[in-house]
Structures
1.
Amino acid sequence: MERKLFDEEHEIFRDSVRAFLKNEIQPHADRWQEQGIVDREAFLKAGEQGLLLMWADEKYGGAGMKDFRYEQIFIEEMARYGDPGFFATLHSRLVGPYIGELGTEEQKERWLPKCVSGESILAIAMTEPGAGSDVAGMRTKAEDKGDHWLLNGSKTYISNGINADLVVVAARTVPDSTHGLGLFVIERDMEGFERGRNLKKMGLKSQDTAELFFNNVKVPKENVLGEATKGFYYLMQFLAEERLLGAAGYLASAQAAFDITMDYITERKAFGRRIADFQNSRFAMADMRMELDIAQVYVDRCVEEHNEGKLTAEVAARAKLFTSELEGRVMDQCVQLHGGAGYMDEYVISRMYTNARISRIYAGSSEIMREIIARSIGLDPRQKKPKSVEEAKAKASAA
């Protein structure tokens, strides 16, 4: 199906992104996979091309392109020609906006230029060893000491955790309050800030995912984003874009797997016939094509709504849930159509399959997405009596 989302400028940008990825990222992917981390130079080269924090104003070195479609194009091309462990989008659109939207002018001038250039790599730290992503169970705490905050605790499963120069850390600032959180920008060389292991994972081998430890870290008041007790609400503020980023990526990955599998089954033969000529193969590809097209229409519409400032976290949750589940189905089917070759790491579909398994877990698991969607349509077990869909939506948005 022809997509109506992009104009000529976007397609010119797509060509430039594709060329960059083919020349500067793809050739290093196997080495990064082996070493378990992407070279920092990759961020510098992306910065030189103006591909990081594209939304940032020109005075900070950015292009001032707030149109989400440019990031969507970057995500789509990355799925086919980049490396899945190069988390440039997390740096640019998931973490960067916390500084761009919540930071003071002094903070933006201090941090954004190096983030745009790729000199400073970003990460965000919410998940904890004992609580996962359960904010209510968060134990990392920050105490107000007058001229600074004292940060103590630990985080785990932190993407870009080894490479990161700036980490936005969520910590409890109001004891016995599930919502009393602050967001603190921790810099690489702060005393008491330590990194643990580069965690070994099922997939995304080149992504540096780490444990982080904070032992009496003195955080200057100038490193607090927004108000020190409103971190929970700030985290909720960025949920719609986070889920949309995920949806665009999962769908792009599934589309890439489909294309790779199409090439494979039209070239490979079994029993004297192309694999593509067997009815099972044709039906499987037809089913995937149908679902991919339908999902693309929904995601593209979400992008339009996001550009208009209308995308809600609940609608984005539907996109995140459907595309992550679809990615899993597509990857499984594509491995099956590759036969034994699909189980071999020398075939990219094998690595794509293991990479995709995390999509239904991070950025909010499928179970959490279903809970959010159910509440948004009025099915909230916390309510003693039924309520209207409008009331449910208002309640879900407030939460």
2.
Amino acid sequence: MESIEKANIFENFLFSISGLQVEQINISSQFFETVYLKKGDFFIRDNEACRYIGFIGQGAVKAYNTNKDNKENITCFKFENEFVSSFSEFVSQENSIKNIRAIEDCVIYRINHSNYLYLLDKVTVWNEIIKSVLEQEYNQKERYLLNYNNKSVLDKYNYMLINEPMLIKRVTTQDLASYLGITQRSLTRAKGEIHKNTL
């Protein structure tokens, strides 16, 4: 089953990358192991060594840190065909500054740091892949600041409705409210207001 999943999900992703030859894809896939996370399981914990980068084949995760009252501050969500890690801490091999936790049952293909370094050396196209992943991370943060920071609750929810509908379909109200930096009550009110205006 594992090899079928890899062929269907992870290798399909690798085949979609221009510049990777079949032999390089075969080499690359050998260094990724499949892990299965149940909803609520951790992929990475804060204050622990950040040992892996993962590729989500199925499911979704949230990244967050907690304040002194143990309240979650969610910074992003990742879904299928996205890489996930605490990237700067992975590269520097320091403790993660955030938790990454499954919000759905997940299949993740992960690579450890020593294999990652070996892969960058042997299959140099991976340097470009990782560069692209880090650019996407940066762009995601920029989009968040641009579209969610210092905006009204209605504006935030409207933007999400139009541009990130997957979040509304697959993320709980509690997690969405944390991500938007608002209360659940405010989010529920905004949903009701927009729904009323579209009737």
